[in-house]
Amino acid sequence: MSKQRSRDTEIEVALRRELHRRGLRYRVHQRPVRAVRREADVVFGPAKVAVFVDGCFWHGCPEHGTWPKRNGEFWRAKIEGNQARDANTDQVLADAGWLSVRIWEHEDPVVAASRVQATVLERRGRLA
């Protein structure tokens, strides 16, 4: 597990490249709400949009997530704990006026960037 990248994964870098190509500027690996020790992968501060790129295995993707047979109870608790933490993070950010966008690692970066861009532009329009 220590060999697994937790930041700058292939999909994360591809998403950031596409967002930058579209003229969007952002911060990388920051806490949207300082009081909460959880970092978003991409943060659009003025629009209050936090983007999380979730791995299919680690966050229990409904399409590609798998349940290991070996040490199954441990892994089920681990993955379900990650899902509960994700839901709590989304709620805490929503309470603080932020919007969470969740991207699965199997998503096409161009399609995901379009979704993020639409969300950011809509939030900017509402805040302006």
UniProtKB/TrEMBL annotation:
One of its GO terms (molecular function) is endonuclease activity. Keywords: DNA damage, DNA repair, Endonuclease, Hydrolase, Nuclease. InterPro entries: DNA_mismatch_endonuc_vsr (IPR004603), Restrct_endonuc-II-like (IPR011335). Belongs to the Vsr family. This is Very short patch repair endonuclease. It comes from Saccharothrix hoggarensis. The lineage of its organism: Bacteria, Bacillati, Actinomycetota, Actinomycetes, Pseudonocardiales.
